[in-house]
Recover the amino acids of this structure.
């Protein structure tokens, strides 16, 4: 038996992407697909993932949500978000292979993350690993990772193996998801685990990652106690930490990517308590429509506890760090004042 369909009846529990997904579902496949066609790929992925998992939305919740956007939707019935309804909507405006790719990713978390991790592995290390694999397996791996990284790996393969791999890459039409899952499992359990061990473990990086998730008041106490005992380690951890203020060092395109990945409600809370220059920089990289919506949400939300602001800002920071780990953005190191040229 499959998992029971979850019932959604709490407006406050909905994330920004879930609210968007419910509205698309309420519009129906024809109208919703025409509207979704106007989104970029990152937005399509975000809405599709939320749509597939939103479950059964009660008519009361739907009415409350749609009333925020327009009174004329107030009497709409309930909607159900599922993998099937999501796939049907995507099929109306995307080619079949793109629909399969997106649905494959949202049905299971392993897909996209593993290939992006492989795209960040040193090309020499990866080439040595592929030399011990079957050419067909190597062809699948290189076909799934980023093209620019695959272009660095291919020249490092022995000529005979390189030719075999290229031939198989050309002949690849589609790979069964079961095969991809098997390859991902091998890469995760064997290659990535060995790669992490071979490249050492820096406890300062681990502590910086932990400290990024601790509220500022407690963190200040920790540093005041730690610095006299371990000054060098404290300095190293502070260098490795990435804060909400550091988002100001991102270029406009990278910050736009972070905003697309972030929940709109959390972003509004984070900016509600941010310094004016930080809030202005975020708003400056957004489209006029998105900027007006966000400003309206910030102005109408009322007083917000600073603890909630810090929690929301921490979520935005974690989204940025995740994007950096996946190679989607580059976070300049502290002191790189010339990292961006306009």
């Amino acid at each position: 038996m499959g998992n029971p369909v979850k019932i959604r009846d709490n407006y406050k529990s909905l994330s920004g992407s879930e609210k968007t997904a419910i509205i698309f579902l309420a519009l129906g496949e024809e109208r919703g697909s025409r509207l979704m066609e106007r989104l970029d790929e990152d937005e399509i992925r975000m809405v599709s993932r939320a749509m597939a998992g939103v479950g059964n939305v009660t008519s009361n919740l739907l009415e409350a949500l749609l009333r925020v956007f327009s009174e004329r939707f107030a009497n709409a019935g309930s909607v159900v978000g599922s993998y099937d309804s999501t796939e049907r909507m995507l099929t109306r405006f995307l080619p079949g292979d793109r629909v399969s790719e997106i649905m494959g990713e949202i049905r299971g978390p392993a897909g996209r993350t593993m290939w992006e991790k492989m795209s960040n592995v040193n090309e020499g290390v990866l080439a040595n690993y592929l030399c011990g694999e079957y050419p067909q397996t190597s062809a699948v791996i290189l076909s799934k990772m980023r093209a620019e990284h695959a272009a660095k790996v291919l020249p490092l393969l022995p000529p005979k193996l390189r030719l075999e791999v290229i031939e198989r890459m050309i002949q690849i039409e589609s790979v069964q998801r079961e095969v991809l899952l098997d390859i991902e499992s091998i890469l995760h359990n064997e290659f990535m685990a060995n790669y992490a061990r071979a490249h050492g473990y820096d406890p300062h990086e681990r502590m910086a990652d932990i400290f990024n998730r601790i509220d500022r008041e407690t963190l200040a106490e920790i540093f005041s106690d730690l610095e006299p005992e371990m000054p060098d380690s404290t300095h190293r951890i502070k260098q490795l930490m990435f804060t909400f203020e550091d988002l100001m060092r991102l270029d406009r395109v990278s910050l736009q990517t972070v905003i697309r990945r972030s929940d709109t409600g959390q972003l509004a809370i984070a900016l509600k308590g941010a310094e004016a220059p930080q809030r202005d920089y975020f708003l400056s990289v957004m489209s006029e429509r998105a900027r007006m919506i966000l400003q309206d949400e910030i102005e109408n939300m009322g007083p917000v506890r600073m603890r909630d602001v810090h929690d929301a800002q921490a979520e935005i920071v974690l989204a940025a760090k995740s994007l950096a780990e996946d190679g989607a953005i580059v976070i300049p190191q502290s002191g790189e004042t010339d990292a961006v040229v306009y």
Q: What stands out?
A: The radius of gyration is 23 Å. The CA atoms of residues 87 and 103 lie 7 Å apart. The beta strands are 7-8, 55-57, 79-81. Residues 111-198 form a domain with the Annexin V; domain 1 fold (CATH 1.10.220.30).
